[in-house]
């Protein structure tokens, strides 16, 4: 199992760099994980990451994009309620990239 | 203006990838060692998942490493497993014995067409195992060795078996052309099972199996998550139609249990198909329920081992029994239907605790589902349309020029060819078929079935999907087709990326999404948007036109 070192501690990650235990995640990890994709997190990224965590804690799964879009609209207004906006922030795909920075597992199955 | 292709990370551009070299290597196939090319194979399963899958040999390993940390007696484990299966399955022994190497299958495989790798010819892919069979299980092979087409099971051979077992989507197109009817998918299935015995599973398959065993679906959706998801769909339906649908979950005594693929809860465009189903059931006043435990039609256990397939499959029937429904209606799912039609009865015997399915709306008896008690939603809907029970306005799909991709499992494993076409022709005005040798029982695979729809093997997926995409491109250029309809969740997950890469400008839809667009519901408001929230033709907001 590959390991990822953060603040002198080793964490288990999978081959694509997803943290294996979402409960080990802390906020300071997100900028470092994003840095691996040369992304600098700003407030707009954090709005999404924080909500992903909220949703995951409640439902034990990352939210469908559809819900993410809806929620962004509800919280921050219609200009943030579209997939184009999300892809601008996370070019590798909001589900894949944002989940990785948020320390959440990626969805599996027929998806 | 031509739309630019979307190229997944690490995959060459389409014009590069389409230069396929069909020249076989200099040396014979036994002397050509397997080479693990990045982008063409999946990651190994994590130890957590290997343990949860109860593989007899559990350890950490990586498919990228040279050393797979196999147990010392790996060869014995593999061969014992093979012996056991040769004894158990007459079909397997037959498939090992009877191939006459006529080559009819050679150029029928999408992976061979897309890669040019001779070991992706179905005949040679099976020969990888047949050569081992001859060496250890036939007298000729034992004594004559290579002359008899036999070879030792070495570490390299094992790796080769792994590499190519995960470059087969078990789509069975080759079998449709085999004069002996050899089911090459069954050979792949056995190889994967033997590899499972050694703990050599891929994570993309293991994860869903573990989730499904725990929570009833591949994604790991919990009951309250399912409730929240369906509520969200209901809210969207309200926005589009003005009508409030009220689906129930785990409701005992409902007449029908509905089971679809869990991908449709999660990812677009599957979600629109799920919403479409909710709308039709509501419109009919159907007495049906969802189940949170049988919240998955798909079965990645089928890509792991027979035991796991059996175990995951039965949850559907166990739930039908628990909820005391009369019969089961199944959604637009692919390999679920192969399992229902070709495995269920041998695994579990006749389902005598349910009733023979009868449509409560039309009174039609589904004779074909007498034994399984499970009806495909396309049969159900086609029957409704035939009896005039749905009010449809196909002009609402006028923004679409549609072609239909037959899913491998529904077409080849259940001969399910007319119903989806009948539905599509009734709900949209522009339908065009792809060339005849690429549809119906000769359909080309999406290139990502049987658990190959991962992210790390994108090059393989684009190669495997090339023949399908090529046929779509033909109707796209000839008729302006802009929508690829299907009836399988892996299709809905895999084809969008395939289209974006090979035929940009073509979208992907489930069949019941189009039904939902066309469905005129009682008391609905005037529709201005389709299921995706896009404006309908002629209903665009002023100023946009």
Key descriptive features of the protein:
heterodimer, A: 111 residues, mainly alpha, two-stranded antiparallel ribbon, globular, B: 545 residues, four-stranded parallel sheet, three-stranded parallel sheet, 25 helices
If you had to describe this structure to a student in words, what would you say it looks like?
The complex is a heterodimer of chains A (111) and B (545). With 111 residues, chain A is mainly α. Chain A has a domain at 28-101. Chain A is 46% helix and 7% strand. Chain A is built from five helices and two strands, in the order E-E-H-H-H-H-H. In chain A, strands 1-2 form a two-stranded antiparallel ribbon. In chain A, a hairpin with a 2-residue loop joins strand 1 and strand 2. Chain A starts with a strand and ends in a 10-residue tail after the last helix. The relative contact order of chain A is 0.17. With 545 residues, chain B is mostly helical. Chain B folds into two domains: 14-201, no CATH class; 209-518, no CATH class. Chain B contains 25 helices and seven strands. Chain B has helices spanning 14-17, 47-52, 74-88, 90-97, 110-115, 122-137, 139-144, 155-165, 173-177, 184-197, 203-215, 223-241, 263-266, 270-284, 306-313, 315-322, 335-342, 344-348, 377-386, 408-414, 418-427, 458-464, 466-479, 489-502, 511-518, and strands at residues 256-259, 288-289, 327-330, 374-376, 402-404, 483-486, 507-510. Chain B has a four-stranded parallel β-sheet. Chain B has a three-stranded parallel β-sheet with strand order 5-6-7, sandwiched between helices. In chain B, helix 12 (223-241) packs across helix 14 (270-284). The radius of gyration of chain B is 24 Å and the shape is globular. The two termini of chain B are 18 Å apart. The mean pLDDT of chain B is 96. Classes of the chains: A mainly alpha (111), B mainly alpha (545). At the A-B interface, helix 3 of A face helix 11, helix 12, helix 13 and helix 24 of B.
């Amino acid at each position: 199992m590959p390991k990822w070192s953060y603040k002198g501690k080793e964490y288990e990650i999978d081959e694509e760099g997803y943290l294996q235990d979402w409960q080990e995640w802390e906020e300071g990890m997100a900028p470092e994980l994003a840095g691996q994709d040369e992304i600098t997190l700003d407030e707009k990224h954090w709005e999404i990451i924080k909500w992903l965590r909220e949703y995951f804690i409640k439902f034990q799964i990352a939210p469908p994009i559809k819900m993410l879009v809806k929620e962004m609209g509800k919280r921050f207004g219609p200009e943030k309620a579209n997939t184009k906006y999300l892809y601008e922030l996370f070019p590798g795909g909001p589900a894949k990239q944002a989940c990785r920075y948020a320390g959440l597992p990626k969805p599996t199955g027929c998806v | 203006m031509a739309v630019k292709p979307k190229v997944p990370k690490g995959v060459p551009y389409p014009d590069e990838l389409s230069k396929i070299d069909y020249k076989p290597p200099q040396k014979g196939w036994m002397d050509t060692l397997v080479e693990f090319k990045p982008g063409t194979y999946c990651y190994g399963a994590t130890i957590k998942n290997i343990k949860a899958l109860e593989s007899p040999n559990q350890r950490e390993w990586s498919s990228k490493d040279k050393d797979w940390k196999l147990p010392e007696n790996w060869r014995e484990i593999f061969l014992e497993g093979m012996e056991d299966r040769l004894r158990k399955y007459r079909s397997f022994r037959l498939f090992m014995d009877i191939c006459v190497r006529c080559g009819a299958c050679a150029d029928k495989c999408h992976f061979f067409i897309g890669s040019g790798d001779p070991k992706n010819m179905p005949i040679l892919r099976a020969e990888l195992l047949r050569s081992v069979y001859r060496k250890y299980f036939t007298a000729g092979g034992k004594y004559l060795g290579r002359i008899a087409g036999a070879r030792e099971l070495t570490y390299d051979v094992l790796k080769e078996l792994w590499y190519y077992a995960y470059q087969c989507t078990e789509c069975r197109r080759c079998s449709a052309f085999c004069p002996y009817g050899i089911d090459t998918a069954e050979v792949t299935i056995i190889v994967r099972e033997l590899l499972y015995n050694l703990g050599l599973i891929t994570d993309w398959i293991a994860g869903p199996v573990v989730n499904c065993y725990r929570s009833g679906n591949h994604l790991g959706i919990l009951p309250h998550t399912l409730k929240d998801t369906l509520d969200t769909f209901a809210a969207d339906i309200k926005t589009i139609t003005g009508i409030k649908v009220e689906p129930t979950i785990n409701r005992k005594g409902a007449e029908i249990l509905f089971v679809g693929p869990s991908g449709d809860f999660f990812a677009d465009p599957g979600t629109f198909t799920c919403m479409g189903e909710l709308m039709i059931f509501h419109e009919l006043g159907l007495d049906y329920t969802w189940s949170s435990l049988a919240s998955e039609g798909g079965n990645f256990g089928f890509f792991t081992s027979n035991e796991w397939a059996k175990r995951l499959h039965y949850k559907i029937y166990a739930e039908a029994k628990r909820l005391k429904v009369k019969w089961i209606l199944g959604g637009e799912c692919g390999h679920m239907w192969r399992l229902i039609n070709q495995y269920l009865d041998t695994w579990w015997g006749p389902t005598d605790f349910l009733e023979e399915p009868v449509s409560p709306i039309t009174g039609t008896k589904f004779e074909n589902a007498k034994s399984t008690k499970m009806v495909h939603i396309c049969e159900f809907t086609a029957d409704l349309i035939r009896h005039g029970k749905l009010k449809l306005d196909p002009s609402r799909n006028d923004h679409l020029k549609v072609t239909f991709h037959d899913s491998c499992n529904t077409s080849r494993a259940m001969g399910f060819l007319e119903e989806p076409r009948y539905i599509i022709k009734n709900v949209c005005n522009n339908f065009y078929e792809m060339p005849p040798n690429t549809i119906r029982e000769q359909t080309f695979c999406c290139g990502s079935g049987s658990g190959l729809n991962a992210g790390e093997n994108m090059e393989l997926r684009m190669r495997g999907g090339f023949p399908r995409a090529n046929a779509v491109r033909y109707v796209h250029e000839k008729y302006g087709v802009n929508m690829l309809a299907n009836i399988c969740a892996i299709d809905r997950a895999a084809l969008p990326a395939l289209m974006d890469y090979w035929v940009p400008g073509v979208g992907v839809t489930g069949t019941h999404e189009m039904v939902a667009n066309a469905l005129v519901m009682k008391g609905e408001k005037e529709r201005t948007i389709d299921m995706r929230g896009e404006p309908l033709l002629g209903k665009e907001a002023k100023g946009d036109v």
